[in-house]
Automatic annotation (TrEMBL), chain A:
Transcription regulator PadR N-terminal domain sequence ranges: 22-85
High-level lineage: Bacteria, Bacillati, Bacillota, Bacilli, Bacillales
Source species of the chain: Neobacillus vireti LMG 21834
Top-level taxon: Bacteria
InterPro entries: Metal_resp_DNA-bind_regulator, Tscrpt_reg_PadR_N, WH-like_DNA-bd_sf, WH_DNA-bd_sf
Name recorded for this polypeptide: PadR family transcriptional regulator
Database matches in Pfam families: PadR
Gene3D superfamilies according to UniProt: Winged helix-like DNA-binding domain superfamily/Winged helix DNA-binding domain
From TrEMBL, chain B:
Xref: InterPro entries: DUF2812
Membrane-crossing segments per the record: 113-134, 174-194
Protein name: DUF2812 domain-containing protein
UniProt xrefs under Pfam families: DUF2812
Key words of the record: Membrane, Transmembrane, Transmembrane helix
């Protein structure tokens, strides 16, 4: 099976998509990414802005209506969810074979 | 106070602005040169992004994201390209970029802007060439650019007065078109330099 060219997702893209299951504006995404990654991934404003622009272009996320006139609010699209699922399966496979390898290594 | 300077390196530009701030000159505008306001010396951390916006709402959203993150928008407009930010929250990150790619890609956007600027001048220049508006002969025989009747028969102060008076007009008549190829060349050089810097940062 030919793999989608966007897989694997980068760590930041993965967390941004994950944080957009519920609508959020830019700064809220920054906070959510930091929280979801246990403080491991801290994105700066300029980097996030570029990432959002790119994800909009790829149609992985979309703008949604909000009451806030100064902040745009985004949400993940079905395509974005598909991408997350594909990357999850990739990682599950890796986790599975790695655990097996460690188990076999542990017995011998 | 106004200062005129040209930078192709955002890091150098930011260092210069930080130095100005430490001497008590706060950046307030960047439309025609750099505009500063006298204020108290400040250990500022200024960072520069390069972005053009199609809609005002996009620009507002962009500035708001930076403000939320602890960066004050000092200068720059929807279509100015360069955007200047000053760190106002000590807890904020030290930089407006957290990875090399996004740090580099502002040079990519700068390079593209210079290319499109060059492309704007190109048709004007082409039109001048094709309509024979350019008189190459004037390089070898600049006398023909002077229209004052009997100028070359005058002598002494009379001659110099008339000659110097007409020289700026003659120069403009003969060589104003040069501004276009010069601008095109400069834009292409700047574009190339920005592209080089982009490649260099990406390789780091």
């Amino acid at each position: 099976m030919k793999r989608d060219k966007h897989i694997p997702l980068t760590e930041t893209v993965y967390y941004i998509l994950l944080s957009l299951f519920e609508p959020a504006h830019g700064y809220l995404i920054l906070q959510k990414v930091e929280e979801l990654s246990n403080g491991q991934v801290r994105m700066a404003a300029g980097t996030l802005y570029g990432a959002i622009e790119n994800l909009l272009k790829l149609k992985f996320i979309q703008p949604v209506e909000s009451g806030d006139s100064r902040r745009k609010v985004y949400m993940i699209t079905e395509l974005g969810k598909d991408m997350l699922r594909l990357d999850l399966e990739r990682m599950q496979h890796m986790i599975g074979i790695t655990e097996d390898a460690f188990k076999r290594g542990g017995i011998s | 106070m106004r200062k005129f300077k040209l930078f192709l390196d955002f890091e150098k530009e930011a260092r210069w602005l930080n130095k100005m701030a430490s001497e008590g000159y706060e950046l307030v505008g960047r439309s025609f040169g750099y505009r500063f306001r006298k204020s108290k010396p400040d250990h500022a951390n200024i960072k520069i992004d390069y972005r053009l916006f199609k809609k005002q709402a996009d620009f507002v959203d962009y500035c708001t994201l930076f403000e939320d993150s602890g960066w004050e928008h000092l200068a720059g407009t929807k279509s100015s390209g360069a955007q200047y930010f000053k760190q106002v929250n000590k807890d904020a990150d030290e930089d407006i970029f957290s990875d090399i790619d996004s740090k580099a890609s502002r040079y990519k956007r700068l390079s593209q802007m210079y290319i499109s600027l060059a492309m704007c001048y190109l048709p004007i220049f082409a039109a001048l060439v094709t309509t024979n508006a350019i008189n190459i002969d004037a390089f070898f025989n600049p006398k023909q650019l002077y229209f004052t009747p009997g100028l070359w028969d005058k002598t002494g102060a009379d001659f110099w007065g008339a000659f110097l008076f007409e020289t700026p007009f003659a120069f403009f008549r003969g060589f104003a078109w040069l501004a276009f190829p010069v601008m095109i060349a400069l834009c292409l050089i700047f574009s190339y330099k920005a592209e080089q810097r982009y490649q260099k940062i990406k390789k780091k």
